[in-house]
Amino acid sequence: xxxxxxxxxxxxxxxxxxxxxxxxxxxxxxxxxxxxxxxxxxxxxxxxxxxxxxxxxxxxxxxxxxxxxxxxxxxxxxxxxxxxxxxxxxxxxxxxxxxxxxxxxxxxxxxxxxxxxxxxxxxxxxxxxxxxxxxxxxxxxxxxxxxxxxxxxxxxxxxxxxxxxxxxxxxxxxxxxxxxxxx
Length: 183
Prior knowledge:
alpha+beta; CATH 2.40.50.140; about 45% helix; rod-shaped
């Protein structure tokens, strides 16, 4: 039997792709990020990146092993790979549904702490009597929030500020120039 056949190459490539997908899922998670962290949703347990990665990896590894070391034909090798893919898909779906997606995906306190220190731009002036509005980026999304100055001083349009905290949808902000001096 030759060392590399088209069948072996096919299963090796599928294994590699499955491994890459699984590593991607491990590094980036499997939650679907929609606009803001508070809107992160769990994908369906049966159709998500970790499940697809492990299923492809199992398909490729079993298919490669049967093709390389087994004494079966290509049809039996393919059937074994499909059975392994189905078993790993089912196992990962149960794992994701029963364990990984059981709890909340986002801790609300963590979300607020994550925004602390975020630089924003004033897009509606903050006065001593009225809230203004800021624009900032979080998780690749452009977001807006009502804002007030932590020292009560007015802040002009276009000024860069730093978010101290957000309470009830209103950001307490401090001038970037003041924060920069402390750094």
